[in-house]
Queue: 2 jobs
Job 1
Amino acid sequence: MPWTSMNRIYAKPSNTSGGEGVASAPTSNARVALTAAADTGGRFELSDHGYGKSCVKLLHVYRDGEHHAIREYEVSTELKLTSESPYVIGDNKDVVATDSQKNTVYLLAKKHGIKTPEEFGAVVVNHFLYMYKQVGEAKCRVVEYPWERLQAGAPHNHAFIFSPTATRWCEVSQVRHDAVVVKSGLSGLRVLKTTQSAFVDFVQDEYTTLADAAERIFSTVVEAEWTYDNMRNPDFDNAWLTVKDAILDKFAGPPDTGVYSPSVQHTLYQAEKTVLEKVSEITWIKMTMPNKHYLNIDMSKFPTNVTKGDPRHHIYQPVDKPAGLIYAQLRRRPKSHL
């Protein structure tokens, strides 16, 4: 079943019940109450439910002669059944066991290969909706481990190095008869620069002890997530790299001069604006940048004979908590139809 981003899946009748040797609840119970509302006389309702398999680990190796490529993933699946009977009366006949979901991940990876996390996630959710008519919604979260090809004078054919600069992830979901929804993300991108950062002219009142900082260390751990509007032919790999490069560019600037940051908020906004300008398929992007403080240590308390030294040495105290937390979401404005 080839994947296309605009697929709308209509499940065919399946002979697979989903239960794997699990006895069903007595038929008499099923006649009494099939929903939480019916079971409780209308007092309660099952407002949300689902189940799945978390953290299915797999390594995909593509061997093209002497040249090999790898992608390592951690895949989590989640299904929402149209029936509440597994919860209300313990009837498992519609339950696709989580162990079967794990097996499905491996089998689909073997059958289709893995090009990107997003496309593989779409293959997984399409499969569950196509195979099991009792599934009303399917979700798949894919986290990619950051392997890079080893550079040994030249790119190595079959050796790789773990390079955890940032973690790539995606969440793919689909409700039956609706289009696939893809959210991609980046996490754990820790950056630091030693100059070209300030924070001044903020509110000063009776609650304020923080002084203006015309020069400070700027460090943060960036988290970002975004969704796609045009799903016809997105380049997921390019989009992810564009987001990462935009963050680094607006944070650091040119290598010789850098770029001035008057606040975390401004740097965050500039990165988001660059992403929307460069990747037309992205509908909105949200970034979070918590402060990772490096505070000046007051050396004035010590006599000069113990503090005197090379003036190029500067010592700071890393402080993780408490920390400021800055975030924003930038989206495209809806086009006017007037």
Note: The first strand starts at residue 56 and ends at 64.
Job 2
Amino acid sequence: MEIKIISTEIIKPSSPTPAHLRTHKFFLPDNFAVNGYFPMLLFYSAQSKEDMKISSHLKNSLSKTLTYYYPFAGQIKDGVSIDCNDHGAIFIETQVVVGEMSKLLQKRDNNLFKQLVPLKGNMQEIPTTYNDANLIVQVNYFGCGGIAISICFNHIIVDGTTSAYFVKSWAEVARGANDIKNVVVDCSSIYPPYDAYASMRSLYEQNHYHYNPTEIVGKYFIFYGGKIAALRKKIGSGSYLDHPTRFEAIAALISGALKRNADKEAHEFTVKKLAAVISINMRSIVNPPLPPQCLGNLVTTAIAKLPIDEKIDYNYLAAEVHKSVKNVVDQYKTDTHVSGLVKGLANSTVIHFSDISRMPFYEADFGWGKPTLLSFVSLDHKVACLMPTSDVEAIITLPKEEMAKFEQDPEFLSYAKPFMSKMASL
């Protein structure tokens, strides 16, 4: 695939941010988030409009949307806040000179998808060329008329929920809406940020993001409805958990395959357990609850510690996932949780689980229809992410050697099928 940059410019909010809103304070979990970009891709089928009209439409609507999401147009100025100075978002446009969108979608190769985002190499690193912008958008135009919109957020202030509501709001503004709900809420009064937590974030990054991105493989797997029902029934037949949710059953299945294929010989002196780290949306569990569209990296995590050398019991694995999440929801305390997270990762091989299957990404209609595919391309560590598709689809990323074993696991493949395509390389 060959891509040519057409233009790069700064998009500022259509209305200046008022003086009393010029400082946005972090919520404690914002401090703990990895300082890097969180890129996503939305693919749209062939359009009848000219690229120039689409370009103007997207820029104007983005400018208006930034008046609601004004921290995205600001810059992080210290360890605890954003200077909402209307610096603006980076807006890049490219022409895909060689490469057909239909073949790209059929192939679903994450390495090819990465060519459509403005970040290269390790996406957790913020390029100095972007001057610490909190938001970078790249619109890729295909010769067939198709469009791929890459939206890259600074992960410190964005989680999956924020990204979903942002693209939904941007699309609503593009279609003429002017009544977007308030998205910027001062959460710092609930759990104030501490700059000291930067050291804990650094420890977390050192322990977790230690893979070479070129050695990471991301693949798509589909869990069909009937198979999910059968999996839940099978897992629910044990003595630890009666009725596992869809997420609990899939997390147990993936964890079991990873445990079964763990290279014990290479890990026996350092890795004693598998740590399943489960993302939890904090908006509904803090007191008082926060609006669902509230901006921020409002995610906490639960850790299910699964010893590698024990016999695999899916019911037990699902129960551990269930128990870890329930404990966090029932007894959420930020300080003990953060320290517990770092301790929970010690001597572990870590797999991150997240479920965005009910988030409104596919409602992002800019006036020419809803997206045909959503993809995340920055999963440069071990991740299993459930996607918002009609059948349950998951993006799973693993180091090459582990993926080679994982994707051949017969037990896993009895419930999930890899997304396959016989299309030639682009």
Note: The radius of gyration is 21 Å.
